[in-house]
Structures are given as structure tokens and as C-alpha cells.
Amino acid sequence: MNAEKQLEGFIARFDQKHQALIRGTRKALRRRLPAAHELVYDNYNFFVIGYCSTERPSDCIVSIAAGANGVGLSFYHGATLPDPDKLLLGSGSQNRFVRLESAATLARPPVQALIAAAVAQAKTPLAAGVKGTLIIRSISKKQRPRRKPAS
Q1: Around Cβ 121, how many Cβ atoms within 10 Å?
Q2: In which band, very low, low, confident or very high, does the pLDDT at 146 lie, cut at 50, 70 and 90?
Q3: End-to-end Cα spacing for the chain
Q4: Given 84, 104, 109, 150, which is the most exposed site by the fewest CB atoms within 10 A?
Q5: 112 in a domain, yes or no?
Q6: How confident is the model over 79-136, as pLDDT tens digits?
Q7: Which residues span the domain enclosing 42?
Q8: Three-state DSSP class for residue 66
């Protein structure tokens, strides 16, 4: 199975609203970061598509992180990003995130500024004039549900 089909299978496990949000966010990030490698992890807690300047996870700039409760835009080194609008959530020593209500959230100027700052602070810059690749990195055999249980 090719990587795109495999990725589509991971996304299909989510409810329709989250599927659309993941796809829309991915499309917007591919436009914004065409040279980034997409590293995909279908882990126990979250489904993640990381946008990285190399094929190493440590060179991740920003990620889509999705679970049954929603979709977020995660900044790998978010704790060091300037955030004058106080959009970043989380209290870890490194990672911060923004909850995504829609893919249009990415077009908001404060979110665009966070993405630009994350790109600017990347240890390894994104290559110019190349197209990033899609790489399936990890699939956990055991996973939390990707949809909320029916109430």
C-alpha cells in the first residue's frame, strides 16, 4: 500500500468533522511548507503528521495532532516561541499547541506569526526549491478510539 492510501486510512478512522479538519489543515500546511517532510505517526494517544525540515523527528517544526476530542496544531519547540496573543496552550517544557476549530484558524495572523517563528527558529532550515516527502514512521497496534463514543 502506498503512503497516501495508508494515510487516508488513518484519517478515515475519525468522525467526518475531524476528517475534514485534518485534510484541510494538511492541505494548508503543504501549501505553506512545501519543502517539509511529512512524518506520520499513528500512535496510542494521537494521530500525528509532523512537518519537518529533515527526515528526523527532532527537526519537526509543527504538527497536526488529532485524537477523538479534537485536532490541534502542535509546535515542537513551542515553549520558546513568541506568543503575544497568548494562543499557545500546554505547560510542558517544550511542546505547545493551538486548538483548531477549522482549517481557517491557520489563516489568522497570530497563528501565521507562530508558524513563521517556528520556521525561523528551526535548527535545520527548510530546503528551497524541493518538495517534501510523505513518510509513515510508526503505527501502534493498540490505540485509543479515534471517535468519541456515542452518548
Answers
A1: 13
A2: low
A3: 35
A4: 150
A5: yes
A6: 999 999 999 999 989 999 999 999 899 999 999 999 999 999 999 999 988 899 999 9
A7: 3-139
A8: strand
> DSSP strand E in the chain: where?
37-42, 47-52, 60-67, 70-75, 96-100, 134-139
- What CA dihedral angle connects 67, 72, 76 and 81, to 10 degrees? -160
Sign of CA dihedral 112, 117, 123, 125: positive
Does a structural domain hold residue 144? no
More confident residue, 128 or 38: 38
Number of structural domains found in the chain = 1
Look at residue 117 and tell me if it is in a domain. yes
Give the separation between CA 87 and CA 21, rounded to whole angstroms.
19
Give 88-96 contacts, CB < 8 A, sequence gap 24+: 88/114
Q: Give the cell for residue 111.
A: 497563528
Is residue 143's pLDDT more than 80? no
Q: How far is Cα 10 from Cα 93, in angstroms, rounded to an integer?
A: 29
Determine contact, residues 43/57, Cβ cutoff 8 Å: no
61 within domain boundaries: yes
**How many residues are there in the chain?**
151
pTM (predicted TM-score) = 0.90
